[in-house]
Design brief:
Layout lengths: L26 H15 L8 H19 L11 H30 L2 E2 L2 E2 L2 H42 L6 E5 L8 H4 L5 E3 L4 H4 L11 E5 L25 H4 L15 H33 L7 E6 L2 H10 L6 E5 H7 L2 H5 L6 H5 L1 H4 L4 E5 L4 E8 L2 E12 L2 E11 L9 E2 L2
Antiparallel strand pairs: 1-2, 3-4, 3-5, 6-7, 8-9, 8-12, 9-10, 10-11
Helix pairs in contact: 1-4, 2-3, 2-4, 3-4, 3-8
Length: 420
């Protein structure tokens, strides 16, 4: 059990602009935790759940992309930006899997009140408290840390690129009543970029830290002597340079205590799968860019994921087709981006087509009986996205592929049968 692994404080920065997202729990996460509670109460020992991991990791991945200012799809493969985002993403999954382990442990421990076994209703009430604690209250601070650490990573790379012309860094605190006195004492301290000082004093130096570092040229600047300022007592899990290490959370975080090897392995597998989907999104992006340029392009089929078990069985029984892989072809991407659909306001944006590999497993699935195809439905804010899939003959091969895509009104979902 982790007891208060992080501390909320009033020193929240201007990056804290998305806290309304944590004012209430995600309904899908609540339902998932409810199912896990039933399994645990039924005697199942659970240390890892892949669905829970993706729910836990998603806000941290969103935060790191916001802080870094770019997503994996927007940068060149294997570039310094790509490698930095890849490392940050892997750390987000590692952290989230460890957090989930402690959530599940706390849920298991909640089965008993001393020597007494709680009733299921009592147990569910305790589980709800655990869920709020981890996935609402503490998540606020973790999200801000993901933004701050990824900002630090982007800045550190920028500083390294400019180190020859600008070899000094200067610590800058926000000098107001919310700033920690320890951090205020570092305000104005100058050290060379290669000074070991920055290995332990590069912000953030605590939860909600708003401090930053600026870069200075060699001319007219010199290092601040060590004896002329008092170094703060930095908490152990912040006594490192997140930007240099390209990670969101320190290995000293309490979540990592007692995590079994199988959970660590599952985190690696999940992060690799996520990164693989981003590579697929990059391929889709390249195809859409070629289509928009109306130039010569290679017609190709792109596998974007596996068919959900519910759909696989349904397709065998209804459309007499065994679907295993979900694919997208250049021809169907052209159809989905046709100008008449855009002009009518029915088309998805390029970004909503590019993100399909990431969200495919989260979609609701409906069967359209009149056309014998399947609607993958995803809600992107107030937009209801419909990706239509079905069997399609391409170069003498029958595929389960994207047929078209567009927006749909919520009320029109009643025209189809929900199967997932």
């Amino acid at each position: 059990m982790v007891d208060q692994p992080i501390e909320e404080n009033s020193n929240l920065s201007s990056i804290n602009s998305n806290l309304s997202a944590f004012d209430s729990l995600d309904p899908d996460l609540q339902a998932l935790v409810g199912d896990l509670a039933k399994r645990i109460y039924g005697g199942e020992e659970i240390t890892f759940d892949s669905d829970l991991l993706h729910h836990t990791a998603k806000p941290l991945v969103d935060g790191l992309q916001k802080g870094y200012g770019k997503s994996l799809v927007e940068v060149e493969y294997n570039s310094p930006d790509y490698k930095a985002l890849e490392n940050l993403t892997k750390n987000a999954f590692k952290f989230s899997a460890s957090k989930d382990f402690h959530i599940l442990q706390d849920m298991t421990n909640a089965l008993r009140d001393g020597d007494r076994v709680r009733s299921f209703d009592e147990f569910r009430a305790e589980v709800d408290k655990i869920n709020v604690k981890y996935n609402q209250n503490w998540l606020r601070t973790e999200y801000n840390q993901a933004i701050a650490a990824s900002q630090a990573t982007a800045r550190w790379q920028e500083f390294q690129d400019n180190a020859k012309a600008m070899p000094f860094l200067q610590y800058q605190a926000v000098m107001d009543s919310n700033t920690r006195p320890d951090h205020q004492r570092l305000h104005g301290v100058i050290k060379r970029i290669d000074n070991p000082f920055w290995n332990t004093h590069f912000p953030p130096l605590g939860w909600g830290c708003r401090c930053e570092v600026i870069q200075l040229p060699g001319k007219n600047h010199k290092e601040t002597p060590d004896g002329s300022f008092q170094k703060p007592d930095v908490p152990p899990q912040f006594r490192e340079n997140f930007g240099k290490k390209q990670q969101l959370f320190s290995d000293k975080h309490p979540y990592y205590e007692g995590v079994p090897e199988n959970v660590k392995r599952e985190a690696v597998v999940a992060s690799n799968q996520y990164l693989s989907k981003n590579e697929i999104s990059t391929t889709i992006k390249e195809q859409i860019e070629a289509i928009e340029k109306k130039g010569r392009r290679e017609y190709k089929t792109i596998v974007i994921g596996a068919v959900a078990n519910e759909l696989k069985q349904h397709a065998i029984e209804t459309i007499k087709f065994e679907a295993n892989e979900i694919s997208v072809t250049t021809k169907q991407l052209e159809h989905a981006t046709r100008e008449f659909k855009t002009n009518a306001g029915h088309a998805l944006t390029s970004e909503e087509l590019i993100m399909l590999p990431q969200i495919i497993d989260e979609c609701e699935i409906y069967f359209d009986e009149s056309h014998n195809n399947y609607w993958y439905i995803y809600r992107n804010g107030n937009r209801v996205l419909k990706y239509v899939f079905g069997k399609y003959l391409i170069k003498k091969e029958m595929l389960f592929t994207l047929i078209t895509a567009g927006l749909i009104d919520e009320v029109n979902l009643k025209q189809a049968i929900r199967i997932k």
